[in-house]
């Protein structure tokens, strides 16, 4: 489904990703862990098409298509979804209107006719229930005045509505208490299926108690330096990142 | 002397005296004497140059470099107006074509006991004393060449008089159409809106152009708001790429009255709006909202004044603009708080999005406060579209152009929602969404 090969990217002339290689098959959940500043969020941003980052090398093939030359909206229409670490507040645009525009723009991209108001509302209500999202938030301006938990829940709600093939969760657990974390994780789990994949970017292991990954990768200094199964996450939780850093420095 | 060597000012002054010479007895009326004085003032002031502080960023040289036919007839029919429609709503709709009232196209629905609506000419014929009570009373001391010019040539426009205690349910929509299909045309509408005690009315002025020759509209509206009265006043400008518009609206408010205004400039080559409000009563409330969307080489200039003369009143102002291409915008907001106007609250804000490096916005708040117990604030911002918001929307599959349109519409939404004549607001929502999506 996703094949990242020797991906390099920089911002303002500083190289952050220094050759990332990653294979994700349909249905798999991969966790990307690593210390602060290792390039985790950069990887998520580059995959979603954030334009501040300059891709300096490598390829990213998603569902058979090279995506690095695609605009962010084309990647979204192809089925990539980024749940933001810091969701943006947009005054004057309601969540419901925003999502309706998004759904219909993606349908247009796929050559499908737009959903009518009744179909759209029915679908949205079901998805809101799925992530325990209060209906009243839908009518409010997007994320404006939302609490941290509401913002993150809104990300998962949008994901449920857009039904992406590949979801990238960028530190979705940051700033959430345990109840909010559970609700967000349940939303993510309910969307798991044999043809959907996810990349879960996180600093801590605790999210992985709820969203159990098939593989865990450790990103350090712009490279994946260690890969394993969920046991690797427990090891990191127990021992921290220093032993990994030491291993890398010894080799380098 | 050939036409080319006669400048606009000379032509206007010559025309005035030529008309006066055939007026017979009416030339000695008090009404005409006001016009005569105004002509002399215009002659003395001349058209403003950019050396005049009030016109520093707005150069009228282009406007005054050609002649206009101020007496152009028009063969306009209902069919010609099809494209210029505003969604229907039961309303008093008056048409002025090249400045002249057209009774055939107009529709009046409100009862005569509630509201007197006449063309200025007709009103003057019926009751010259009443009209003269109001005419030029507010703008006489403006010291503005265009206002003086309008007064000198005031001939047609609307006269609205609401008796005490009447609430007029149906809005009054004034459609000013410049028919510039065959020649350069000029018009100088003069409007008087006199609202009695505890009376309420909604009035909109809507300006459109037919054809692509030049049009020059020089309009003046005087609004008298009595004690406890409420007036909502909107101005919608959707004119051609060759339309020049200079407009002055002056308002005088008495105790406990409320005045709401919305000024929306959608299109036009050169637009200058003066909105001057005198809060001459206690516990008055004045609200001013504005929106402008210049593109190409369009020029939009809004000058506003909130003149607090008595204690305990409030003024509140919010103007917003989106500028593209090589367009220019000007905002000048004056707030005066006179020595007697203690406990005044006055707020002003002007926010702009400038989408091109070639577009410019000049903003100048000007506060002159002579009382010590007041709350005043002002702020202006000029920025670009929020890139983070744009990426957020695009990451959900919304195209860049659609995301831009949504963000810009959202930026305008708080002003649009202040337009409380439904048909006008719906019309604006449609035109604005279309305009924002077009690029």
TrEMBL record, chain A:
Signal peptide extent: none
Domain ABC transporter as annotated: residue spans: 2-246
GO molecular function: ATP binding; ATP hydrolysis activity
Entry-linked Gene3D superfamilies: P-loop containing nucleotide triphosphate hydrolases (3.40.50.300)
One cellular component term from this protein's GO annotations in UniProt: cytoplasm
Keywords: ATP-binding, Nucleotide-binding
KW Transferase (keyword) present: no
CDD domains found in the cross-reference section: ABC_FeS_Assembly
Family: Belongs to the ABC transporter superfamily. Ycf16 family.
Protein known as: Fe-S cluster assembly ATPase SufC
Species whose genome carries this gene: Dyadobacter sediminis
TrEMBL record, chain B:
InterPro entries documented for this protein: Fe-S_cluster_assembly_SufBD, SUF_FeS_clus_asmbl_SufBD_core, SUF_FeS_clus_asmbl_SufBD_sf, SUF_FeS_clus_asmbl_SufD, SufBD_N
BP-aspect Gene Ontology terms: iron-sulfur cluster assembly
SUPFAM superfamilies per record: Stabilizer of iron transporter SufD (SSF101960)
UniProt xrefs under Pfam families: SUFBD_core, SufBD_N
Domain SUF system FeS cluster assembly SufBD N-terminal: 14-172
Ranges of residues in domain SUF system FeS cluster assembly SufBD core: 183-411
Similarity-based family: Belongs to the iron-sulfur cluster assembly SufBD family.
NCBIfam families: sufD
Protein's UniProt name: Fe-S cluster assembly protein SufD
Organism: Dyadobacter sediminis
Upper classification of the organism: Bacteria, Pseudomonadati, Bacteroidota, Cytophagia, Cytophagales
The gene coding this protein: sufD
């Amino acid at each position: 489904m996703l094949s990242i090969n020797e991906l390099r990217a920089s911002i303002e002339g500083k190289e952050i990703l220094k050759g990332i290689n990653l294979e994700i098959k349909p249905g798999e959940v991969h966790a990307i862990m690593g210390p602060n500043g290792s390039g985790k969020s950069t990887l998520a941003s580059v995959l979603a098409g954030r334009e501040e980052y300059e891709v300096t090398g490598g390829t990213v093939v998603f569902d058979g298509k090279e995506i690095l030359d695609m605009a962010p909206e084309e990647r979204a229409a192809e089925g990539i979804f980024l749940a933001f670490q810091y969701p943006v507040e947009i005054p004057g645009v309601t969540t419901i209107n925003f999502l309706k525009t998004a759904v219909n723009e993606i349908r247009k991209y796929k050559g499908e006719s737009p959903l009518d108001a009744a179909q759209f509302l029915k679908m949205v209500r079901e998805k809101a229930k799925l992530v325990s999202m209060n209906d009243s938030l839908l009518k409010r301006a997007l994320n404006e005045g939302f609490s941290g938990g509401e913002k993150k829940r809104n990300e998962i709600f949008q994901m449920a509505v857009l039904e992406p093939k590949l979801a990238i969760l960028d530190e979705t657990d940051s700033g959430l208490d345990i109840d909010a974390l559970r609700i967000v994780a349940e939303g993510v789990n309910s969307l798991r299926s044999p043809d959907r994949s996810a990349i879960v970017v996180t600093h801590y292991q605790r999210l992985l108690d709820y969203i159990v990954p098939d593989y865990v990768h450790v990103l350090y200094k712009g490279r994946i330096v260690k890969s394993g199964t969920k046991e690797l996450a427990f090891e990191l939780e127990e021992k921290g990142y220093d032993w990994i850093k030491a291993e890398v420095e010894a080799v380098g | 002397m050939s036409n080319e060597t006669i400048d606009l000012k000379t032509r206007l002054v010559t025309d005035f005296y030529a008309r006066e010479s055939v007026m017979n007895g009416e030339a000695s009326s008090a009404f005409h004497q006001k016009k005569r004085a105004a002509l002399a003032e215009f002659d003395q002031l001349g058209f403003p140059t950019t050396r005049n502080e009030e016109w520093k960023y707005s150069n009228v040289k282009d406007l005054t470099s050609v002649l206009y036919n101020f007496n152009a007839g028009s063969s306009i029919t209902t069919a010609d107006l099809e494209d210029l429609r505003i969604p229907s709503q039961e309303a008093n709709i008056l048409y002025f074509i090249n400045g002249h009232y057209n009774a055939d196209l107009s529709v009046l629905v409100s009862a005569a006991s509630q509201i007197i609506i006449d063309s200025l000419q007709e009103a003057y014929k019926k009751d010259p004393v009443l009209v003269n009570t109001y005419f030029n009373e507010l703008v006489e001391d403006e010291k503005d060449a265009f206002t003086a010019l309008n007064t000198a040539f005031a001939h047609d426009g609307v006269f609205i008089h609401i008796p005490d205690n009447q609430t007029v349910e149906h809005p009054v929509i004034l459609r000013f159409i410049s028919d510039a299909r065959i020649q350069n045309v000029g018009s100088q509408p003069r409007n008087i809106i006199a609202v009695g005690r505890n009376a309420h009315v909604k009035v909109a002025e809507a300006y459109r152009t037919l054809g692509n020759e030049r049009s020059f509209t020089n309009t003046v509206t005087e609004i008298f708001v009595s004690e406890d009265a409420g007036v909502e006043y909107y101005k919608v400008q959707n004119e051609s790429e060759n339309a020049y518009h200079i407009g002055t609206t002056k308002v005088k408010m008495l105790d406990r009255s409320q005045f709401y205004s919305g000024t929306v400039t959608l299109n036009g080559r050169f637009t200058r709006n003066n909105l001057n409000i005198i809060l001459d009563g206690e516990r008055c409330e004045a609200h001013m909202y504005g929106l402008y969307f210049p593109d190409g080489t369009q020029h939009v200039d809004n000058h506003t004044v909130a003149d607090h003369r008595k204690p305990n009143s409030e003024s509140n102002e919010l103007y917003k603009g989106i500028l593209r291409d090589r367009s220019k915008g000007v905002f000048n907001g004056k707030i005066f708080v006179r020595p007697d106007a203690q406990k005044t609250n006055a707020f002003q804000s002007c926010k702009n999005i400038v989408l091109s490096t070639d577009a410019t916005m000049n903003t100048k708040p000007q506060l002159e406060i002579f009382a010590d117990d007041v709350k005043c604030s002002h702020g202006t911002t000029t920025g670009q579209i929020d890139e983070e918001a744009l990426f957020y929307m695009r990451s959900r599959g919304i195209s860049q152009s659609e995301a831009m349109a949504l963000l810009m519409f959202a930026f305008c939404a708080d002003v649009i929602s202040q337009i409380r004549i439904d048909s006008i607001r719906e019309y604006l929502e449609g035109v604005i969404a279309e305009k924002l999506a077009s690029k």
